[in-house]
Amino acid sequence: MPTTFFGWVGFLLQQYGGLFFSGTCTTLLIALSGTFFGFIIGLLVAIVRTIEIPRGMGLFKRGLRKLAHMLIAVYIQVFRGTPMIVQAMVIYYGSMQYLGIDMDHTMAAILIISINTGAYMAEIIRGGIVSIDKGQFEAAHAIGMTHWQTMTSVVLPQAIRNILPSVGNELIVNIKDSSVLNVISVSELFFQAKSAAGTYFKYFEVYFIIACIYFVLTVTVSRILRFVEKKMDGPDSYVICGSQSDSRAEIVISKEQEKEVDRQWQSK
Amino acid sequence: MAEQVISIRNLTKAFGSNQVLRGIDFDANKGEVVCIIGSSGSGKSTLLRCINLLENPDGGQILYHGRDILTDESVSMPKYHAKVGMVFQQFNLFGNMNVLENCVAGQMKVLGRSHAESEKNALKYLEKVGMAEYRNAKPRQLSGGQKQRVVIARTLAMDPEVILFDEPTSALDPEMVGEVLSVMQNLAQEGMTMLVVTHEMGFARAVATQVVFMDQGVIAEQGAPDEVLGNPKHERLKSFLRSML
Ligand SMILES: Nc1ncnc2c1ncn2[C@@H]1O[C@H](COP(=O)(O)OP(=O)(O)OP(=O)(O)O)[C@@H](O)[C@H]1O
Ligand SMILES: [Mg+2]
Question: In what order do the strands lie in the sheet containing B59-64?
C-alpha cells in the first residue's frame, strides 16, 4: 500500500482510472445533452411568449394563448424555485411509484437536467430577444415576414450571439451540478468517486482527483466557448467591391483602419 | 379618374384614453407623393403604422385598390406587406446580415424567389441607391445615410407599389440628408407612389403632389403643396410653418 499522498493518488488513478474516465464521460454526456435540450426548451418557451395577438384572433385562440403563458410561468417558477436535487428525487421516484416507469438512470438524469436548464434558458433567451431592438421586428414584419420567419432569420441569430456567454455559463453550471444527480444513482463522476473512496477510505485523495477533473472540464469548456464567440463575430473587416464584374477591384476596410480614421478626425 | 392605390376612410386609433387618430380620410392615387406634416405627437407615425398594420386601428377603413384590408379576408397579408413597403426613421437593418443579405432575405422568404434571382434584383436596387459597392458590409460598419439607402433598396427589392416613409432623414447628420432625399426624389420621378412623413419642407414643396397637415389626430388642411405651404389658412398650420423656418 502507498504511504504518501501522491503515492495514493497514483495508486487510485491506476486502480480506478477507468471508473473515473467513464464517470467523466457520463458527466459530460449529461451536462452537454441537458444543456442542449434545455436550450431547445427555453427557445420554444421564449418564442411562444413573444407571439403577439394578430388582428382578429378568436376568443378560443386567445384563451389557449393565455393558458400556455400561465403554464410557462408556473414551470419557470417551480423549477427555479426548488433545488435540482429535490426535483431529481420527485421526478425519479414519482414516476416510479405512481406511473410505474422505471427510467434508465442516465436518461432520467438527462431529462431532469434538461427540464431544469430549460427554465433558466427560457429567461436567458427571453432577455436575448428583448435586447434586440424592436425596430428589427417591425422592419421584418413590414416586408411581410411571418412571426416565425422573423424569429428564425433575424431575431434569434442575434439574440443567441448575445446570450452565448450565459448559455456557456449554464453548461459549466451543469457540468458541476450534475454531481447532485448521484442521488438517483447515475454513474456520473461524483457517483463513481463515492464508490471508489469507500473501498480504501481515501476520501481526500479521491475527491482531490475528481476536483481536478471537474476543474479541467470547466476551464476547457469556457476556453472553447470564448473561441466560438470570436468566430461567430466574423471578420472585423469588409470588402468594397469597386465593380460588379471585376472582383479584383476590391478594397478591404478593417476595424483598425476605421479606428485610425476616427483618431485622425478627433485630433483635428 | 386616376387609380386609387391607398384610400383611408374615417380611420381612428386610441392608445388607452389617448385618442390619437380621430377620423382620417385621404386618397393616394398611383404615382402620387403625399407628404404628411404636422407637429410632434399629432399622430403621423401612428397613421403610417396603421396603414402598414404595425398598429391595429380601432375603426375605419384602409382600402388597397378598393379592398378593405382590415376586413377583407381575400387580401393576403404577406403580399400586402410586400406591396406596401415601409422605411423607418431608425433604419432597422437586420444586424446579423450584410447589406446584400438584408436585401435578399425578404425576397426569398416572402416572395419565394430563388437565391440567384433575389441577388440579381437586390444588386440592381443597391446600384440604384449607390450602395452596391458596400454589399459585403455589415450594418454597424455603415453611416446613417448609407444605412437608410440600403433600407430603401431592401424595400424596393420587394417590388412594392407604395412606400411609406416615416421621417426617413430625421436621424441623419445634416450632410447625409441630401443623399437620401435625392434617392427619394428619383423614386418619385419614376412614378413610385409614396406617403412621406417629413419635416423637410423643401422636399415637400418640390416633390409632393399633395400635402396633408395633421393636427391633434385630424387632417386640418390638405391640398397641393403651393396652396398648403404657400397660402396656409389654419392658424396652427401658419405657426407650424413659421416654426419650421
Ligand atoms: N405604442 C404606443 N402606446 C401608447 N401611446 C402611443 C404609442 N405610440 C404613439 N403613442 C402616442 O400617440 C401620440 C401620437 O404619436 P405619433 O408617434 O403618431 O406622433 P407623430 O406625429 O409621429 O410625432 P413625431 O413627429 O414626434 O414623430 C403621442 O401622444 C404618443 O405618445
Ligand atoms: Mg413620428
Answer: B18-29, B4-15, B59-64, B67-68
